[in-house]
What does this fold into?
Amino acid sequence: VTGIDLFAEYRQPFLKLCRGLGFNGQFYDSGTDALSNFKPASVDLVLSSFSIYFFPEIISAVASILRKTGTFIIITHFSSHLHELTTMISEIFKDMGYSQPGPFPHDKLISNFPAEEGISRLSGYFAKIEKRDYENELVFTKESVAELMTYIAYKRSFFIPANIQMNPTLSDRF
It folds into this structure.
């Protein structure tokens, strides 16, 4: 079992999980460059969980390292992901006197590989493609406003467009 990421701090948790499941694991923190370590048609499974939109250009490399019977699982978002939240944030910007803030970094990122384009983006590389939609919701109630603010703070870079300069008043709102 091999893990690939850009962040070395994920190495130990990944290897611990592998050991706990009875697997010998290895971990590359060189990002997608690590795919060059695999021989053609040598891999059984590649899993990209909420990450393919960071590097959609790897699809051809994944196709080349997968065995003929191999599987490439991609878990990704639809373009409408977090639409209600981005609409709310856009309204906050407008209320504070900013013009339309433009596309959110989140929206640009998801557009690199949205779920609704998965089949068309993969069909040039894979003969058999199966799509399974999974509807989910992220729900915050009045009682969970603190958790919502924690979530927004954690994902802040996805919601603040590059053309918006953060000032103390705006920063306090986020």
